[in-house]
Amino acid sequence: MISLRRHVLTLVAVFLALAVGVVLGSTSVATSIRDAVVEREETTAARLEASQEDLAAERIAVDRLDSLAGDLTPVVVDGRLDGRPVLTIVAPGASDEDVSAAREVIDAAGGIDAGRVTLTDKAVDPEADAELQALVANLPIGTAPAADADLGTQLGTALGRAGLLRAEDAEPHLEDDDRETVLTTLADAGIIGYEPGTLRPGQLALVVTGPRDEESTGVRVAALARTLDGEGAGAVVAVRMGDSGGRDAASILRSSAEEDVSTIDDAGTEAGRLATTLALAEQLDGGQGHYGLRPDATAAAPSLPPTPER
C-alpha cells in the first residue's frame, strides 16, 4: 500500500515535470516566433528597399523623358499658333508656375498673349450665386443665356462675349465700350481680376485650374470652359496632377464624354505644356482630345500636325 507521503511526492514530481515541460515548450515556441518575425522583417525590408530602388529608377526615367520633351518643345511648336491670340483664364487652385510656363510655350508657338483673367474664389462660391446671376442678367452681352442655365455657363457667356472673338469670322462679339463694361462690372463685384489695358479679344481660351476638394468648383469651371469653347474657336483646360480627393474640371469633362473642350492633366510638366500648346493648335483645326498621364486620358499628347509652310 502506497503511503500518503509517497503519494504526495509522486504528485509533486508529476507537476514539476509538467512545469519544466511547459517552460521548455514555451521557450521553444518563443524562439520559433522570434525567428519567424526576424525573417519576415528582413524579407519586408528587402522588398521595401527593392521597391524604393525601382521607384527611384522610374523617377529618373520620367525626369529624363520630361527633360527631352522640354528640349524638343521649341522645335515642335514653332509656328503652330502663329498670330493666334490666346486668352488665359486662371481658375481657383491653379499654379502661377503652370500659368507662366504655359504662356512661354504658347509664345514660342507664335501665339499672341491676349491677356489673363483670374477667377476669384467668389466666382465659384455658391453663396454668391444670386449676386452673380443678377450681374450677368444686366450685362450688355447681347443674347443672354437661359435663365435656368448653371452659373458656370452664365459666367462663361459673359467672359466669352467680352474676351473672345467669334469663331465664324474672328470678329469681337461686342463693341469696345460694352466689352469694358462687362469686364469692369465683374471685376468691381470681385468675381474676376485682371490688369486694365492688358486684355484683347482672344481666338482661343486656355483655362488653367488645379485639383480641388470641392467638386462644385470643378463642375463650374467645366461648364465655363464648355461655354468659352462655343463662344470662340476652341478651349483647352489644363490641370496639374495632385493628391486631392476631389474631382477637378478635367476629370469632370472626361467623365461626361466631352467632345468639344480638350483637357490636359499634367500641366506641371514639360510634356504637359507641350501637349497644351498642341491641343490649342488642334482646336483651331476642329480637333479635340484628352491628354496626359491619367488612366482616362486618350493619349499623352495630340498627334503632330504637318509642319506649317513658311
TrEMBL record:
UniProt name for this protein: Copper transporter
Region (Disordered): 286-310
Pfam family, one: MctB
Organism: Dietzia maris
